[in-house]
Amino acid sequence: MPSANKSLQSRLPSIDRLLRLPEIEALSGAHGRPIVTETARECLTALRKSISTSPPETAIDIEDATIAARIAVGVAEKLSPSLRRVHNLTGTVLHTNLGRAALPDEAMEAIRDVATGASNLEFDIATGKRGDRDTHLEERLCRLTGAEAATVVNNNAAAVMLVLNSLALRKEVPVSRGELIEIGGSFRMPDIMSRAGCKLVEVGTTNRTHLKDFEQAIGPKTAMIMKVHTSNYVVQGFTATVPENELAALCHDRGIPFANDLGSGTLVDLTRFGLPHEPTPQEAIADGADVVTFSGDKLLGGPQAGLIVGTADCIAKIKRNPMKRALRVDKMTIAALSAILALYENPDSLAEKVPTLRMLARAPGDIEAAAQRVVPHLKNLFGDTASVEIIDCFSQIGSGALPVESLPSKAVAITPNAAKKGGALKRMAAQFAHLPTPVIGRVQDDRLIFDLRCLDDEDGFIAQLAGFGDPR
Fold first, then answer.
1. Are 299 and 197 in the same domain?
2. Integer Cα distance of 32 and 79 in angstroms
3. Nearest residue to 141 via CA among 133, 132, 150
4. Which residues contact 276 (CB under 8 A, 6 or more apart)?
């Protein structure tokens, strides 16, 4: 190491001296001495490395005030939450990686109400005895779906596994080959069935399955028949599926239950919002399903949960399964889900109250008006380094719901004027992602594209552009 570098290293303050600085003592008082001490050691280690690897002429500031400022930044980074809000401008409304459904105000108020103190989660106020947490949701779920009973677990994958383990343990479950889905995170229906302790019996072919296929598959070891809604893909062309009411009739004739996994699930006919139809639990129950499973945080627009509705006998067996306790939801999920279900009692206000439905039903003209307001600020930000324009695009619903359907939308496209656009786009996307509320879009055709369908805080988006930094 050059002598100049050694001299600089020798002048670095000791950890004890740093901790006695007034600003560091104040930092310790506010956040605790252990984390401040740890961060101070890390800063000194980083400085020593920088000094030892830099040319002698490199200017490295080792003043106490500069190091103290670095320590403060380091402590703030360690204490800042990893999970935080982002602007979802990807064009996928129910984006699995970005948290799926946004909760309405009513759900947030319900969460705050039960989270800040004691609640009657499993206490029956009327009798003064222990209660069942499902009672906070069951009556409303039954009224909305037409089911006899209901229960809730932490997500729909858990709901499917619990149903299979409760009703088909060590027995056979026929399923159409065309419905053996795989969804994100390597969730595969055959694997779930195996883990649930039952045996999958594949019937029919990938594109065509008939009632006789199920009739021939039923034997002494058959526990139930399951239908799986192919919510994340569509088989088109020469196809055939068995109507659900016919499957239900076959099951009931043979004395076994019929289960229908809807995947996403919605409690309202989406065509009223100008969206394609998606099967509902009400329809499944009306067609004779004994058990129906669906998600809470997709088209329903609520918190992550797996909802199970069906006959009183089947739901009772599911509730008695010891796995039910391991998969149950907490009080905050119950509060949020209860508030969401209450909104569905008045379908006429859903598009206004439920953010997911509001975003899905948002008119292209409204989105374009937002783009017109945003574009001047982006043009001012980039000047002559990039072009900014409004373009037509299509949004996706996402999270395995209506996979081939798209929604006409409007986006802002930012195109760097740099000779090599790839690097400029990467830097630009990173700068947006490092804003206080990260902005997440998509890179396509040498442009950074922000689909504004889901921009629900326009003022906040514009205000934080001042901290974008120099995009050049």
1. yes
2. 11
3. 150
4. 270, 402, 405
CB 217 within 8 A of CB 174: yes
Residue 365 sits in the same domain as residue 301:
no
Can you tell me the distance from the alpha carbon of 454 to that of 95, in angstroms, rounded to the nearest whole number?
A: 11
Q: Bridge-partner residues for 410, per DSSP?
A: 392
Residue 8 within a domain: yes
Is residue 162 one of the residues assigned to a domain? yes
472 found inside a domain:
no
Single-letter amino acid code for the residue at 420:
K
Let me know whether 330 and 390 are in one domain.
no
Number of structural domains the chain divides into: 3
Q: How far is CA 330 from CA 103, 142, 152, 304, 305, in A?
A: 16, 20, 10, 11, 10
Q: For residue 239, is pLDDT > 80?
A: no
Q: What is the pLDDT of residues 244-265, one digit of tens each?
A: 999 999 999 999 999 999 988 8
Q: Which residues contact 290 (CB under 8 A, 6 or more apart)?
A: 224, 248, 251, 257, 258, 259, 310, 311, 314
239 vs 416: which has the higher pLDDT: 416
Residue 100 covered by a domain? no
**CATH code of the domain in which 400 resides:** 3.90.1150.110
Domain shared by 398 and 419, yes or no: yes
- Half-sphere exposure at residue 462, Cβ-oriented, CA atoms within 13 angstroms: 14
- Give me the residues paired with residue 258 across strands: 225
Closest CA to 400 of 266, 274, 237, 241: 266
Tens of pLDDT, residues 80-131: 999 999 999 999 999 999 999 999 999 999 999 999 999 999 999 999 999 9
Asked whether residue 261 falls in the same domain as residue 225, the answer is yes
DSSP letter (8 states) at residue 92: B
Look at the alpha carbons of 52, 54, 55, 58 in this order and tell me if their dihedral is positive or negative. Answer: negative
DSSP state of 13: P
- Three-state secondary structure call for residue 311: coil
pLDDT per residue as tens digits for the range 386-440 = 999 999 999 999 866 665 578 999 999 999 997 778 888 999 999 999 999 999 9
Residue 241 clears pLDDT 80, i.e. is over it: yes
Q: Is the dihedral of CA 172, 177, 179, 183 positive or negative?
A: positive
70 lies in which domain range?
3-79
